[in-house]
């Protein structure tokens, strides 16, 4: 078995006295693409936030790269997240006053291992990796939705995380751009990293090593 990047053990989450889910167990291994499906309101985004240690469960345990978050401080959790995980969201979350390359450089400013020239070179290489070699100086409003999502993916890769977690990454895109994003995720996995995708889009199953469905608070492998 490949080394686990994320382990979820008996996760339970409650909102307004209602169980969103309970007893969720999942192992995310290196070098694979995972997809999680479910109806709107099933708790998919909540689960992704727990797996990405952006939120904490009401009970259970999340382990990232061998480290349990149960007894870590907020600062320690943030450090663990920054060292191991990258995130992609449906709405891109780009800074509209920054160019594509500046947006990709943002996570590198808090990385002491990079000088400015190295940050710029790293960001440029990542934009090439996602097919935006001639778009470095463009602002978000000068790019298409698919291009902005590719900038967001490049930014998520900036600190070389072990795992990318993507929440409805193609939800606002047309079919051609959907396919581009899925191919990029496939390439990321082929490079040895891991991708977890939350999506309504059934097409991601064609690219996935493992598919799960979240239904009535229960996570099942398909």
Automatic annotation (TrEMBL):
InterPro entries: AAA+_ATPase, ABC_transporter-like_ATP-bd, ABC_transpr_LolD-like, MacB-like_ATP-bd, P-loop_NTPase
Keyword Nucleotide-binding found: yes
Gene Ontology annotations for the cellular component aspect, listed alphabetically: plasma membrane
Record-level Gene Ontology MF annotations: ATP binding; ATP hydrolysis activity; transmembrane transporter activity
Domain of life: Bacteria
Positions of the ABC transporter domain: 6-222
SMART domains (alphabetical): AAA
This protein's UniProt keywords: ATP-binding, Nucleotide-binding, Transport
Keyword match Heme: no
Family per record: Belongs to the ABC transporter superfamily.
Protein name (record): ABC transporter ATP-binding protein
